[in-house]
Amino acid sequence: MPFIPHTPADEQAMLEQIGVDSIAALFAEIPAELRVDGPPPLVPGAGRDSWNEGALPPAASGEAMSEMAMLRWMGERAERDAGLACFAGAGCYDHHVPAAVWDIAGRGEFMTAYTPYQAEASQGTLQLVFEYQTMMCELTAMDASNASVYDGASGLAEAILMAVRKVARKTGPRRVLMAETLHPHYRDAARNIVANQGVEIETLPMAQGRCDLRRLPDDGAVAAVVLQQPNFFGLLEDADRLTDWAKGQGAAVIGVVNPLTLAVLKPPGQWGDAGADIACGDGQPLGAPMSSGGPSFGFICAKSAFTRQLPGRIIGQTEDASGRIGYSLTLQAREQHIRRGKATSNICTNQGLLVTAGAVHMALMGSKGLAAAACASRANTLRLVERLCAIEGVRPLFPGPFFHECALALPKPAGEVLDALLDHGILGGVSLARHFPALGDALLVCATEKRSAEEIDAYGQALAAVIAE
User: Fold this and answer.
1) For FRET with 313, which of 64, 115, 149, 200 sits at 20 to 30 Å CA-CA?
2) Residue 28's domain spans which residues?
3) d(CA 249, CA 29)
4) Model confidence over 203-233: pLDDT tens digits?
5) In this structure, are 187 and 45 located in the same domain?
6) Looking at the whole model, is its pTM more than 0.85?
7) Together in a domain, 352 and 453
């Protein structure tokens, strides 16, 4: 469409048509402290005071950086970060990504592909997504998979809305029981998304780092129950017992899962006697590097009874008039490009490229490769916890089995310890103080298959030195 110039009179006419008196009024709902007048500064050193020291280039002449200088500075920062041994997890993990994953995902056929509305021109993309969905269903023991949603947290919100639409319908309960041991970002995002849709979120408290099953309500007015396995602290929940209880209440069960762990743990579709109804989570462990926190992709898988509630793309396999296998978008009447305001969901972001990487990663690793990575991560975390807990004042925060993360109690504030560890070249974990202040000086650590015995020992030496100081 060609650019059509407009005049101030045209602008004023538009404002009158929509019922506001100024452009500024369109942004009135944004708090004043978050609004920026004009473009952000491009001058070195002119960023926010809250940036970490060294995060911005030092102020020089007060002029904007040249492209060459900016690339040099960014390269120096990347090299410094690459030298850190990463023991942080909490939803984003430093797993090995085979080089072939992004060699394939970065090809033009995948890198520039958009929603495959025209099946006759998109068979390659459609086949890849179909195979991705097949592998995700095998991992989760579910009947259908989407592809995809923005991230794991928004995927949980969509899963809650799926359950409420299916279970509650018009007159049933719109109350959802959510485990306190769920990732705090997931809890916050889900509340924000469903809050204005008449869904009530109630927290199931924890005891010793796991869902307190003694605190389950008995009124039967629950549409869905949400639990994470392994939970945010890396601990294993009694998913079978909680699933059976929820089904006895007539509630749907939503399992938030790490897809890599499903190579060795019982999949949500097999929890309890009947299995969970919906599984969701973040696909970052499948071929997506940490990349300073993103991007990634969220997934949702479901039993057949919930398939028509699934948001995102669903690809089906069929045959043409000559009997040749073909692929196409299916169940499209749920989506925004068909039903607009009446759609099941109006997701406007699809992480198609990350889904491509996830599919390639799973195909290359295979079931044995994924299981080997999961087992190696578990073994390294056990070795790490044993090494760190040999230091006086450091101990596991909770009893019981954990997977590839563990919460530790420290004799000093976790934030101070983490800052000091950076000077030793170690990204030491995630402080629990912000979201779980009642736990005291606590640190969540993780060791994936990438961590070597030398790095684990170096972490132990560094932590001992930091605590001694």
Assistant:
1) 200
2) 8-80
3) 40
4) 999 999 999 999 999 887 899 999 999 999 9
5) no
6) yes
7) no
